[in-house]
Write a structure and sequence with these properties.
alpha/beta; 8-stranded mixed beta sheet
Length: about 290
């Protein structure tokens, strides 16, 4: 497992009974996580100082309970990267800190390429990977079907990277990639973080198992002659990282020589040997 253990502004303080106790800068949140099936708290005293707790509803969704004053929005840093954080519906904060593992890998690849790199970031959300790639010197095309998430991504880029070349697109990713194929546009690196289920900008339905192989195959048609990397992230329950590697073997590796790998990413708990598993990835790299 690749563990995101280089954070200063983010920490998991404890994990128990379906909840993770996290410190985001100076703000302490308790949020649900389906992987935390054990009941015992390692540090019971730390749970007495929570700013807000997200409670799941049995009928779906949930609500935030605010226990003490906290900002509506604040910033945290990962190395030289700055992100805007705010509690939102369905427990999210606008950032997945475990993705720091992938940010480090992408930034290293881009910096060591010694050439201009064009990145296509699909299902790009609030732009964690966009910020990482832009900071490493790449130009980025950021695509997401949610106008609100794209606006948030612009705020993240504006926190020190506003001069970097980033193109923002609100669109269904499959429709966008098809248009890029027709236009003849090419990219040196592709990142995607597809949801298990979603809807595009005009109500297009996305289903991970049905649509992912098709999308990856389409993306091979917008890769440049010398691609740098292709990264697939996933949080879809029941899918092994080997599945992502198999898809890359059947698509990208058929056109380009390179190395394919897969794995799991996780977050460490402070003062503990425990690690929270947080998702999987498949990578192709030249």
């Amino acid at each position: 497992m690749n563990i995101a253990n280089n954070w200063n502004d983010y920490k998991i303080l404890d994990m128990a009974d379906g909840q993770k106790l996290e410190k985001w800068g100076d703000v302490i949140l308790s949020r649900p996580d389906p992987q935390i099936i054990w009941k015992d708290k390692s540090y019971p005293e730390k749970w007495k100082n929570i700013n807000a707790t997200y409670h799941r509803s049995k009928t779906g969704g949930g609500t935030w309970e605010y226990n003490k004053k906290m900002p509506q929005q604040w910033q945290i840093k990962y190395k030289d990267l700055t992100f805007n954080i705010k509690p939102m519906g369905f427990k999210h904060t606008g950032l997945f800190p475990e993705q720091a593992v992938n940010w480090d890998w992408m930034m290293d690849k881009i910096k060591n390429a010694k050439r201009e790199i064009k990145v296509l970031n699909l299902f790009a959300y609030t732009g964690g990977a966009t910020v990482a790639c832009a900071s490493a010197g790449a130009s980025v095309c950021h695509v997401d079907s949610s106008k609100g998430m794209v606006t948030w991504a612009k705020e993240n880029i504006a926190s020190g990277l506003q001069d970097r070349p980033v193109r923002y697109i609100v669109d269904d990713v499959i429709k966008f990639v098809n248009r890029e194929i027709r236009r003849g546009n090419k990219y040196d690196a592709i990142i995607m973080d597809p949801p298990s289920y979603g809807r595009g900008a005009n109500g297009e339905v996305w289903k991970f198992e049905e649509n992912l192989p098709e999308l990856v195959n389409l993306c091979t048609q917008v890769l440049s002659d010398k691609p740098l990397f292709f990264l697939i992230n996933s949080y879809t329950t029941g899918i092994s990282s080997t599945v992502l590697q198999n898809i890359l073997e059947l698509t990208v590796s058929k056109k380009y020589k390179g190395k394919v790998s897969n794995g799991e990413i996780g977050l460490p708990m402070t003062n503990s040997k425990m690690v929270l598993p947080c998702g999987i990835y498949g990578r192709w790299e030249n």
